[in-house]
Design a protein that fits this description.
The complex is a heterodimer of chains A (429) and B (409). Chain A is mainly alpha-helical. Chain A is built from 15 helices and no strands. Chain A is 64% helix and 0% strand. Helix content of chain B is 34%, strand content 14%. In chain B, strand 2 and strand 3 form a beta hairpin. Classes of the chains: A mainly alpha (429), B alpha+beta (409). At the A-B interface, helix 1, helix 2, helix 3 and helix 5 of A face helix 6 and helix 7 of B. Chain A: Belongs to the NGG1 family.
Chain lengths: 429, 409
């Protein structure tokens, strides 16, 4: 058997060097006896010694049991981790014959020579997996709750995070900031879409009915396809036909698409007929219902255009005032839409003013930053001048005229900058 | 952080603890013991644990900065290179398993049990003293026999190593070598068993001697020798108890029993009289603290313990329900053989703050690798920038499972 496939760990066995590690034990051996005070130490030394021997014992018994397994011709896999007491359990789970040297490379995959009948490669792998999976399960009950790994203590970086967060609000204003503000201010107010009131669409009950119908059609289609294929030819037309019918019904049956003016007008025109028909067919109600062909007979394409035309006619005739009939006021959705639009208008206006204000402030402070930077330079110059003069004084020399001039100049420059700075901040305040 | 902070009376009678920080205090009581000093550094840091109202009372200027930087109390004892696990199968070449550490074991330091001369004398004059001497003789004999047996085994183990090396150099395990190895292992196994038996015998003798001495101490104490234990002595006593807590030795494959290391006690376990426990006690200021105490009595009818505060100066006896009492481990777990009986790194536990008699929440930072080593823990301490104390060493005995119900404020 190749050593690299050998499950034996061939431990380096040996004895603890007591002369080096266990002084009290050694002194007891040398006949020096043991004082009562040293008993505690002796105990610990004996315990360590015992522990080291037990480690040896475990290792040897593991290796020995592997050898026994090998002798019986069983294949023992190389332990992935350090050999432990689980060895025996693993052994019993792996009833494979010892492998020959030639097949050593594919040790983990399939033991080719003579696996016991009935054990298939796939099962081999399965057994192996399950052993590995179960291992933690075996251990968990022993460990108990405190053994579960807990996350390491979190570092307290709250302060750093805080300063990083605050930093962006305190840093100096740059040209980039101003650019960004300008862009924001100049963004074309593309809100016009939101101020439009879209025209009324079809009533939702109609749309839903249509959608339901389409869904049902689809369902039916599927069923039909499953049953017979002969019907297939007819089906594509069917939904359209039905939809058309629905549309027509919508026009004739439902009163809703007729505008209020149209309704009133028709009511005025056909009132008597309705009465008559009321008497004739008790229980019938609604306009147009009694006369399905009415709207169609008027030859008008849609209800809204009729409404518009009637309104226009009435206004032209002077029957109705132009601003009358804003019955939209009663439309809840429209009211809400208008409210939202006005809100949006207010907010965007506020935003615009704030942005311009910010932009102005930013420009001002950019100027001030500039001044401050110059002030810092000036400060440096003043300090430099002071140092040269102080150095000269230390050497008991009067400072040269050049130095003096330089110092005066530095001080005056600085004062000028300070004045500018004051001016700038006063303007702002 | 000292238990005094359970006391409202802070000013009087306790000067002893904080006068001459780091210098006098240590010098007087722990002169000869270097380890102690390093632990005592932790004591300064603990100042930061004092409640704010105490910090403000003017005493704190004696205490030094709470954030004084603290070195790792104990230098990390050689780890890594020679470790048994590190050499196994990480490199492609075959590596033999290394059982022994290449470097010598760290020196064992034990805190001596503090005894006054009068107690010592009382013990020496006792009739049991004779019995003690006999045991020591037995111990000496056993140890000699043990060493003989160890010496005899060395040549055989060398032979095993030689054969193993030969196998490694041949890069394959021939059947003849395998049989040879088998025979050697079998013999070695028998030899080792003998060593183990002798060692257990020696250890048992040591435990017997310790027990006799313990009884004697109690006798001496009860026979009118009523000196109060000073705080320094108390701390030494606690350390000594923890260090000499018996090591659990199981036969191979045996699971560590309850109360060995991190293994929790059984559901209905009742701590015995004189056992040490951690218990949740409500202080005079209404705050809850886990303190170290000794069981005086257990009333099975009411499910209540009577415990004595270990700190004699507190002179307090508490009656507490079972829920508020948690027994300390009765045995140490052996990291070399039963690592599963240790708390894992990063576990949250309750640990005895060094130089105090209170348990506080802590995170395990490093596990012991030898039976004689201790846990390195980080105590939760808001006075430090990262919210944790510097690493401190705490013995296995004083690290217990955290109780969710009894959170301290």
């Amino acid at each position: 058997m190749d050593l690299k496939d050998c499950p034996l760990s061939l431990p380096v066995v040996g004895s603890l060097d007591h002369a080096r590690s266990l002084p009290r034990y050694t002194s007891l051996l040398n006949g020096e006896g043991v004082a009562m005070e040293e008993l505690d130490g002796l105990q610990l030394e004996l315990e360590l010694l015992l522990s080291s021997v037990l480690v040896r014992q475990v290792a040897i018994s593991n290796n020995l049991s592997i050898i026994y397994q090998l002798e019986k011709g069983k294949y023992v896999p190389k332990p992935a981790t350090s050999p432990g007491k689980k060895m025996k359990r693993e052994d019993s789970d792996r009833p494979f014959k010892k492998m020959k040297d030639s097949s050593g490379k594919s040790r983990d995959v399939v033991p080719t020579p003579g696996p016991p009948p009935g054990v298939k490669p796939s099962k081999v792998l399965h057994v192996k997996c399950s052993v590995q999976k179960y291992e933690p399960v075996f251990d968990v009950p022993d460990l108990g709750p405190p053994e579960q790994p807990k996350p390491p203590p979190p570092k307290n970086d709250v302060t750093n995070r805080f300063w990083a967060y605050v930093e962006q609000y305190c840093q100096e204003i740059t040209v980039d900031d101003i650019k960004m503000l300008e862009e924001l201010v100049n963004v074309p107010g593309d809100d016009s879409d939101y101020y439009k009131t879209p025209p009324l669409g079809r009533h939702y009950t109609l749309r839903w009915a249509q959608e339901d119908l389409q869904d049902e059609q689809k369902e039916g289609l599927k069923l039909n396809e499953g049953k017979k294929k002969g019907v297939k030819a007819d089906t594509p037309d069917l939904p359209e036909k039905l939809l058309k019918e629905v549309d027509m019904n919508g026009c004739s049956d439902d009163v809703a698409p007729l505008g209020p003016l149209t309704q009133r007008l028709i009511a005025g025109l056909v009132e008597e007929n309705v009465l008559v028909s009321d008497i004739e067919n008790k229980g019938m109600d609604g306009l147009g219902v009694t006369r399905p062909g009415l709207i169609k007979s008027l030859g008008l394409s849609s209800a809204s255009s009729i409404e518009k035309r009637i309104k226009k006619e009435l206004q032209d005739q002077g029957v109705m005032e132009s601003d009358y009939g804003n019955e939209d006021d009663e439309d809840e959705i429209l009211c809400e839409l208008r409210r939202c639009q006005s809100e949006l208008r207010a907010v965007s206006q506020h935003n615009a003013t704030q942005l311009t204000r910010l932009l102005n402030l930013a420009r001002d402070s950019l100027v001030r930053h500039d001044l401050k930077k110059r002030l810092r330079d000036a400060d440096h110059k003043v300090i430099e001048a002071y140092r040269t003069i102080a150095a000269a004084r230390q050497k008991k020399k009067t400072p040269s005229k050049k130095d003096k001039d330089f110092a005066w100049k530095a001080i005056k420059d600085r004062e000028a900058i300070v004045r500018q700075l004051d001016l700038a901040s006063n303007n702002n305040c | 952080m000292f238990k005094e902070h359970r006391n409202e009376d802070f000013g009087s009678g306790h000067q002893y603890y904080y006068c001459g920080i780091g210098g006098d205090f240590l010098g007087v009581h722990h002169n000869s013991w270097s380890d102690y000093c390093s632990q005592a550094i932790g004591r300064n840091s603990k100042v930061g644990k004092w409640p704010p109202h105490i910090m403000g009372k003017g005493k704190d200027k004696n205490l030094g900065s709470p954030k004084r930087s603290v070195d790792s109390p104990k230098s990390p004892k050689m780890r890594g290179s020679g470790d048994a696990s590190s050499s196994s199968s990480s490199s492609p070449a075959y590596r033999r398993e290394q059982l022994l550490r290449s470097s010598p074991l760290p020196p064992i330091t034990v805190t001596p049990y503090p005894l006054s001369t009068s107690t010592e004398m009382a013990m020496a004059m006792s009739s049991e003293a004779q019995a003690l001497q006999e045991r020591v003789k037995v111990l000496s004999d056993v140890v000699h026999e043990l060493q003989r047996s160890r010496d005899e085994n060395i040549p055989h183990m060398n032979a095993i190593n030689q054969l193993s090396d030969k196998i490694v150099s041949e890069e394959k395990l021939a059947v003849s070598n395998r049989n040879k190895l088998k025979g050697m292992y079998e013999k070695c196994s028998v030899d080792t068993e003998r060593e183990v038996t002798l060692m257990k015998k020696a250890l048992n003798t040591v435990y017997q001697i310790r027990n006799i001495r313990h009884d004697l101490r109690i006798q001496a104490k009860n026979s009118g020798n009523k000196e109060t234990i000073r705080r320094g002595a108390l701390m030494k006593m606690l350390l000594n108890c923890a260090q000499t807590l018996p090591l659990w030795i199981g036969s191979s494959g045996e699971k560590p029993p309850p109360l060995c290391g991190a293994v929790p006690p059984e559901q209905n376990y009742v701590a015995k009289v004189n056992d040490m426990v951690a218990c949740l006690v409500r202080g005079s200021e209404g705050e809850d603290n886990w303190i170290l105490a000794e069981v005086v009595n257990y009333n099975a009818a009411t499910n209540k313990y009577e415990v004595d505060d270990i700190d004699e100066e507190q002179k307090e006896r508490h009656t507490l329900s079972r829920r508020r009492v948690y027994p300390l481990p009765l045995m140490r777990a052996n990291p070399e053989l039963n690592p599963e009986a240790l708390y894992s790194k990063g576990s949250i536990v309750m640990a005895l703050y060094p130089q105090t008699t209170c348990f506080y929440k802590a995170v395990i930072n490093r596990l012991p690798t030898l039976a004689t080593e201790e846990y390195e823990v980080l105590f939760e301490d808001p006075t430090y920038a990262d919210g944790f104390s510097p690493p401190l060493m705490v013995a296995q005995r004083y690290v217990i499972q955290i109780k969710e119900g009894g959170k301290k404020k």
